[in-house]
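PROTEIN DESIGN WORKSHEET
SECTION A - STRUCTURE
LENGTH: 88
TOKENS:
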């Protein structure tokens, strides 16, 4: 499964600035990290009311990953924010 295309297809229609959406997938053995970078003003739309949207997205990614035998971790960052490295 192409997680980058999946997340982009799901999120682009709901964002005010879909051109700023960037999705990175980092593989490490049987684990995938799906990193979503979006405009700060769009983060609320991605998170959703009470976190429902991001929770649903994480659930879909988790189930899709399990079908492929992968553990999927999905995280949201500001567009210019860099993810922290492990151990920091």
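SECTION B - SEQUENCE
RESIDUE ASSIGNMENT:
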């Amino acid at each position: 499964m192409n997680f980058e295309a999946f997340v982009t297809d799901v999120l682009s229609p709901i964002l005010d600035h879909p051109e700023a959406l960037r999705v990175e997938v980092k593989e490490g053995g049987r684990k995938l990290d799906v990193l979503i970078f979006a405009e700060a003003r769009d983060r609320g739309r991605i998170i959703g009311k009470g976190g429902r949207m991001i929770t649903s997205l994480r659930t879909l990614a988790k189930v899709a990953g399990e079908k492929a035998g992968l553990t999927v971790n999905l995280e949201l960052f500001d567009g210019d924010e860099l993810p922290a490295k492990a151990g920091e």
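SECTION C - NOTES
Residues 37 and 55 are 16 Å apart (CA to CA).
The first strand starts at residue 22 and ends at 28.
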